[in-house]
Design brief:
This protein folds into 2 domains: 3-10 and 228-339, Lyase, Ornithine Decarboxylase, Chain A, domain 1, CATH 2.40.37; 15-223, Alanine racemase (TIM Barrel). It is 31% helix and 27% strand. It is built from 11 helices and 17 strands. Strands 1, 10, 11, 12, 13, 14, 15, 16 and 17 form a 9-stranded mixed sheet that branches. It has an 8-stranded parallel beta barrel with strand order 2-3-4-5-6-7-8-9, surrounded by 6 helices. Strand 13 and strand 14 form a beta hairpin. Helix 4 crosses helix 5 and helix 6 (145-156) packs parallel to helix 7. The relative contact order is 0.17.
């Protein structure tokens, strides 16, 4: 169909920009000689994950178990979940998933390891695990090489667990002493470190310099090779995602209202909330639940009710999580409608 046939608000992806971003990151990691494991949490679309794998990714990363289940349902079978899996319901889902695909999970505590071990033993399976290190992210992860060594020794004794290595986020120069000492300590103990997983879009070179065996990058698929930091970086040649909206009101000469608000774009500061491709001087200065408030005082164009606008959202991952479908578009033709299978899979 023609893109004008889409009802609004409509989430669309420019296939040419998408391909450029996918191929660009694959080529960059090949040049660096570091394997890429793409992060699917930005797009949550199996069809896009398969394009990334076809371009050279050795597998995918899913932040939550529900995302991984959606990807396995689409026959993707090599997945890292860099997240602590805690609680019987999730552990049972994990062991069920292990019967269908290769799933590796992260942990950073004896408590998490114990839960994984007990459920794996009960269900007759083995869980591949990696140990997360806090090398400056201030999120999850053990806080020192000594703690990493102690926990790794404990994990090695637990039934049902296959210790594979370590991970860090984000990859940065400050992480090197931590990683080097951790690897040295584990190696002296005879503990295998087959995986050193680094991460962060834009940190691929750091991952290589740290000695990582893979780098996890995700937002590049929609945003280009470096993270989008503000609305001035939103450009149609680098950002693949758009939201097509319709002008539903022109209450004053300086203000229009479009049919996409917080439930379309997400309420995410700073403003403006996105880049309007057709009129770059128009600024989305605010949003209510179902309305986008646009300042058009800097535009010479006279807007009318029913006019359609294309907006690159400021936070493309959060925006995509609010939609059920993604229209794959080339020029002005809709080539496919993809279900955002991982949308809302926060458990």
């Amino acid at each position: 169909m023609d893109i004008t046939a889409l009802d609004t608000p409509a989430l669309v992806v420019d296939l040419d920009v998408l391909a450029r971003n996918i191929d660009g990151m694959a080529a960059y990691c090949k040049q660096l000689d570091i394997p890429l494991r793409v992060h699917a949490k930005t797009h949550k679309v199996p069809e896009i994950a398969k394009l990334q794998i076809a371009a050279g990714s050795q597998g995918i990363t899913c932040q939550k178990l529900g995302e991984a289940e959606a990807m396995v349902d689409a026959e993707i079978d090599d997945i890292l979940i860099p997240y602590n899996i805690v609680g019987i319901p999730k552990l049972k889902r994990l062991t069920a998933l292990l019967k269908r695909a290769r799933i590796t999970v992260a942990l950073d505590s004896k408590e998490t390891a114990t839960g994984l071990s007990q459920q794996a033993s009960a269900d007759g399976c083995v869980v591949p695990v990696i140990l997360e290190l806090d090398t400056g992210g201030g999120r999850c992860g053990v806080g020192s090489p000594q703690e990493a060594q102690h926990l790794a020794r404990t994990v090695m004794k637990m039934p049902g667990l296959d210790f594979r290595g370590i991970m860090t986020y984000p990859s940065n120069p400050r992480a090197k002493p931590f990683l080097d000492e951790t690897v040295a300590r584990l190696t002296r103990d005879g503990i295998p470190v087959n995986v050193i997983s680094g991460g962060g879009t834009g940190a691929e070179k750091f991952s290589k310099e740290l000695g990582c065996t893979e780098t996890r990058s995700g937002s590049y698929v929609y945003e280009g090779m470096t993270r989008v930091g503000n609305s001035e970086m939103l450009h149609p040649r680098r950002c693949a995602l758009r939201v097509i909206v319709t002008v539903v009101s022109t209450p004053t000469p300086d203000r229009i209202i479009v049919d996409g608000g917080q439930k379309t774009f997400a309420s995410y500061p700073p403003t403006p909330y996105g880049h309007i491709i057709e009129h770059s001087d128009a600024k989305i200065y605010g949003m209510s639940v179902e309305h986008g408030h646009v300042d058009v005082s800097g535009c010479s164009h006279r807007f009318r009710v029913g006019e359609r606008l294309s907006v690159i959202p400021l936070h493309q991952g959060m925006t995509s999580n609010l939609h059920d479908e993604l229209a794959a578009v080339r020029a002005d033709t809709v080539e496919a409608i993809w279900r955002i299978a991982g949308r809302g899979k926060i458990k």
